Amino acid sequence: MQSDVPEDPYLSRELERYFPEAVRKRFARAISRHRLRREIIATATTNSLVNRMGPTFVIRAQEETGAAPARVARAYTAAREVFEMRDLWSQIEALDNRVPAQMQYTMLYETGRLLRHLTYWLLMRRPTLSIEAAVSELRGPVRNLTAHLAEALAGQWRTGFDAVVARYASAGVPAVLAKRMGLLDAQNSALDLVELAAAGNVAVTDAAQVYFGLGARLGLDWIHAQVEALQIDGNWQAVARSGLRDSVFQSQRLLTGKALGQPGRNGAAGRIESWVGANAGNLSQWERMQADMRTAGKADFATLSVGAEALRRLTA
Question: Mean pLDDT over residues 43-49, rounded?
C-alpha cells in the first residue's frame, strides 16, 4: 500500500477481476473510481503471491536479491503475465477428479519453481520494471519460443522433456498440457533467449537451438541437473544453490552469445562447431575437469562451485 504498485496501469485489471461480470458491464466507470481501488489491487496482488508462491517467498526474495516487497510483487506479476500462467493453472485445476490430486499438486509446484526463477531474473536484470511494458515486450517472443521450444532441446533437456510428457500422458493428462509441463524446465532460459535473440539479431528459435545444442555439447545439461539434485539443509545452502544455478545460467548465456556471433551458414550446428573449433584449447581443459567430476559420482557443493568457476573462466 505504501508503494506505487497499485498505480501500475496493468494492475487495473486486478480491480476489474475483483467484481462479478454483471457489475463490470454495468458499472465500468464507477469501478475505475472506486474509493478502495488501491486496497483491492494490493490485496489481489498479495493473494496471488502468497497462494501461488507460498508465505515465505517474498522474504526469501528480499534476502537473495535485496529487492523491496513492492519490487518483488511487480516482478512476480510481470513473470506470471508474460508466461500466461493463469491459463496453465486453469488447465491444471480442470483436472479435478480426472487425475490424482497429488499429481496436480506436483504440477502446480513446478509452475511455482519456474515463476521463482523468472521473478529473480526480472529483479536482477530489470532495475526499473513496468508490468505493462514487460508484458508488451516479452509475451510475444516467449509465446513464439514456447511454440517451437521442444524442437530446439538437446541432451538431457530433451530426455527430461520426453520423460515428463510420457509420465503425465500415461496418467491421463491431455497431450497439450503434458507438453507444456514438459517444457517448464527449459523455460527457465526463456528470458535469456529472448534477450540473446534481440542482441544477435536472430530469431528466438535460432537462439534456442544454439543455446541447448551448445549446452549439450559442453555438458552443461549435466551440470544443471547436478545443481538441481543438491540436497538442501537450511537457508544458507538454499541460497548457495541459487547462486550456483544463477552462475551456470549466466555462463551458458554468455557462451551462447559468443557462439551466435559465429558465421551462421550451416545454422545452429555450424555456429556451434565454429565456436568450438576456435576455442579448442580452453575447451580441452574444461572437458578434462568435467570428466573428473562425472567420474567422482554425485557432485556436491564444493565440486559444483569449482565447476561453475571454471565455466566462468571459459566465458572470458
Answer: 95
- Could you tell me the sign of the dihedral formed by the alpha carbons of 295, 297, 298, 304, in that order? negative
pLDDT (mean) for 272-283: 92
Instruction: Please report which confidence band the pLDDT of residue 239 belongs to, taking 50, 70 and 90 as the band edges.
Output: confident
Going by the DSSP 8-state scheme, the letter that residue 161 receives in this structure is H
C-alpha cell recorded at residue 237: 545452502
Q: How far apart are CA 146 and CA 159, in angstroms?
A: 17
Long-range CB contacts (within 8 A, 24+) of 232-239: 235/60, 235/63, 237/301, 238/60, 239/63, 239/64
Q: What is the pLDDT averaged over residues 191-209?
A: 96
From the CB of residue 231, how many other CB atoms can be counted at a distance below 10 Å? 9
Cell numbers placing 268 = 545452429
- 34 neighbors 40 (Cβ within 8 angstroms): yes
CB atoms within 10 A of CB 298: 9
Q: Which three cell numbers stand for residue 306?
A: 569449482
Instruction: Name the residue with cell 506436483.
Output: 106
Grid coordinates belonging to 285: 581443459
Taking the model in full, what pTM does it have? 0.93
Q: What's the rounded Cα separation, in Å, for the pair 262 and 274?
A: 6
Count CA atoms within 13 Å of residue 32 on its CB side. 6
Question: What pLDDT digit, counting tens, does each position of 146-181 carry?
Answer: 999 999 999 999 999 999 999 999 999 999 999 999
- In terms of Cα–Cα distance, which of 218, 221, 206 is closest to 261? 206
On whether the CB atoms of residues 283 and 222 are closer than 8 A, the answer is: no
Q: What pLDDT, on a 0 to 100 scale, did the predictor assign at position 127?
A: 87
**DSSP code, position 3:** S
Q: Give me the phi and psi of 242, to 5 degrees please.
A: -60, -40
Q: Which grid cell sits at 35?
A: 474509493
